[in-house]
Amino acid sequence: MDFTSLIDSLVEDTAPHSLGLFAPELALCVTIVALMFARLFNVDRLLQPSWIALFGTAVGLAFAGYQFMQLKDGLPDPQEFFTGMLVFDQFTVFFRVFLLLFAILVIWLTILSGIPDNEDGPDFYTLLLGATIGTMLMASANHLLILFLGVEMTSVPSYVMVGFLKGRRLSSEAALKYVVYGAGAAGVMLYGISLLAGLLGTGDLPELAERLNLVLAQGAGVTDPAVRTVVLAIMMVMVGLAFKLSLVPFHFWCPDAFEGASAEVAGFLSVASKAGAFALLVRFVLAFVGDEPGAMTNLNLYLGIALGVVAAVTATFGNLAAYAQTNAKRLLAYSTIAHAGYMLMAVSALLVLLSGPQQSSLSAAEINFGARRALEGLMYYLAVYLFMNLGAFAIVALIRNRLFSEEIEDYNGLAEEAPVLCVCMLICLFSLVGIPPLGGFVGKLMVFASLVQAAEIHWSMWVVLVIGGLNTVFSLFYYLRILRAMFLSPRPEGARSGVARSPWPGRYCGVLAAVVLALGVFPLVMDGLSETANNVASVLIP
Asked: Minimum mean pLDDT among 134-143, 205-214, 323-332, 379-388: which range?
């Protein structure tokens, strides 16, 4: 193929097919350009940048919602676009809707809290929307190049947002640590990608299982250098994903970054980066699920068990480390680490189940059903996590605006002055624990149910399940420290009064708390989300 033919084929593939499927991301790109022009021509002095960002994100959500409704009635085969670099299916669209809805809620929060101000607004929202595009690319990645590009497009704006509070030493120090850790993790991941693509001869995710099966068939097992290098490459790619998910031992950046950043940015990082990274992790591990029994199924089993061990250690460390924290953001940072462990348990169960009937007496249909339920549990948990975790960080941000403090001891007696915010915090924290009848309980129950089914294939899943259950009990105590300060401790004399003068902060948090409650109480809402998640899972696991 000559150069002219190559250009013609690229143009034919890009417009209008690929551009139409890429509409939500394009809406955010146009919004970013509009924010830059608003700063250039001083339009941001007349029209607040937050409203430009909110409008553009709402347009992107409308495009994603339209795509989701188109796919809802049927389950067409996935469509590759941009020369196969990205894939369009229900899984992609589900996470597009998820991430764009979350971006709108974060922008709404920044309007209520006043961070950033109008002067820095165009820069802040450009970074926020840029990171959102990165997470959306992670969810639709179909090639190792997009895997790296999506992670870095999410990470680089996040570094700047963590240090966005100018003049604060703690914020600058947190951003520097985040950059150093992120650069190291990115280098390791990129080297792993180069090894994987070089040894297997392809970067396309759908082809990795077939190529790896050929390598395993030709080699002499784990003693073969090529097999060892492939396993090493997979582990190195996992390092980059573990960094984004703040899994132990790649969690060091998380507490410092969350404490140094504003609560609004910490809330964004705690949900968006994890949602995109989990979507990417699912696509990456499913790329190594082969159709033929043998070495591939053993690899999936061992990888699933390894992820289960990491999940158990991560949940345990996050919950134990949270006990000693006195800063609300830092406590919630360790809570975020613990919940990453819980959600990773679903991915572990997914891989163990997909190790196939070779490992148990279960039929292929039963295994696929269990694997779909594991993926359904992950998506349900993420949906609940969006509202309960954002709600907790939002309340910290709104209280900070009046108390000028994020220390737990300064929350003493706050329920007398801000009952709505404190009740919403109670709902969000109890949901994070997993207490019924809240949405967090249902999500955690679905994850633990997938571990029970995976335990029929390998006993190690029972151990992961027990550790997950014990961690659920342990986590109750440090969440109760915040609630005890709010509801039981007396208010100090001479303390600042009046947390929320406007009714809108309470209404915002009330909406988030109401969704958390609805996802655990109302069958219509629960069944609707569960059915949607199951339909999405059936695209990846027929």
From this structure: 205-214
